[in-house]
Amino acid sequence: MMEDKIFSGKFYYFGTFQDLFVYVKNGVITDVRKFEKSVKTERIEGAILPGFFDAHVHFRDPGETDKEDFYTGSMSSVFGGTTTVLDMPNNIIPIRDYNQFDRKKAVVKGRSFTDYGLFSLYDGTNGDVISKESIGLKIFMGESTNSTAFTGDYEHDQFLEKYSRPVVFHGESAECLRKNSAREVKTLIDHDSSRPSSCEMEALRTISKLKTSVKIAAHISDYGNAQSFPEKFFMEVTPHHILLNEEMQLGAYGKVNPPLREKAVMEKTREAYLDGKFDLLSSDHAPHLEKDKESIQFGKSGIIGVETRVPLMLALVHKKILSLDTLLKTGASRPAELFGIKKGKIEKGYSADFVSVNFSDMEKLNENRLHSKLTISPFNGFDVVFPRNVFVRGEKVISNREIIEDCLGNMITPQVA
């Protein structure tokens, strides 16, 4: 049993910063009060926000730990203010049955700074061997890293119809990708042409027709596609699809699936995010080795981002471009809610995950200070605001931007979420 704690400071509570006392027992908020006399508290300096939630990371563990592992990936997460991550199943041996799930569960146990959940891969044939501890399902509608496309019949899949947990779709139509695969790819513009926005549109049309209870369309690259299907599915966006475009000189470090789009499309997608049109803001953190990024033509797709996702957005909040409420909804409370996890809010009954920020700490991102195994970032030089202190379930993990605790992260399953 964790000891009772009382934290004091300026918490973001129901839409405003307020001087509060937050009571915590066993890592959970038990009470929030405005006035207390003669109470010994742990004072948190700065503006205190709920810990952030990233529903889409690829930590490559097990199988490709030369690229990333749960230790380095989760460390990067907490430095960026993220206290909970959900890890995707496209490991080099995909997590598509309970044996592989249990193996991954055992490998990562005790090696995470954040709380975490694990997805299973669904390909249309393996519903009877999916682990019941899976936080959700991932379906690749078209081929991408370490994955093959779904081979079933979407509209008549009884397993998908009955599945009650969230299903996350990599929304690129396999048939459309095949039609465009012969295109030569030497630039980011070529990569866009080889996986055009129309492939996303076709996939979203399919998703919109499914009877699955919780459908999440991952990493939407073109809001013009998504707006055709109002409220047919939940929509996820990434920082790279609202801040980067194919005209930037990023080389293979800008190669990602779905691709970066033209500047006008990026700007429209960004405006939609700023206007609150998206449900989730996720990093789609997908690290590779330097040798995998030597050329656009042969380079692998994926961008690191779990450590920069929140700091990039906090800088936009500081500049009054993005509302804090929109950031907290998409980056903390809404994704947690969709997965049935009591995180992302500073309220009674929620996990005591806190991030304290001094908005005047805005700086230029120095990729050499990141904590992933490969730190080269397409956001190098962008404005960022990193949190000063980070708490996971009431335990301080980051103090004044230095890590002070080892791996405290717990696995989250549907049974205990």
Automatic annotation (TrEMBL):
Alphabetic keyword roster: Hydrolase, Metal-binding
Ranges of residues in domain Amidohydrolase-related: 48-92, 265-396
Domain of life of the source: Archaea
Gene Ontology MF: a single term: allantoinase activity
Pfam name, any one: Amidohydro_1
Keyword Metal-binding: yes
InterPro entries, alphabetized: Amidohydro-rel, DHOase/Allantoinase_Hydrolase, Dihydroorotase_CS, Metal-dep_hydrolase_composite, Metal_Hydrolase
Designated name of the protein: Dihydroorotase
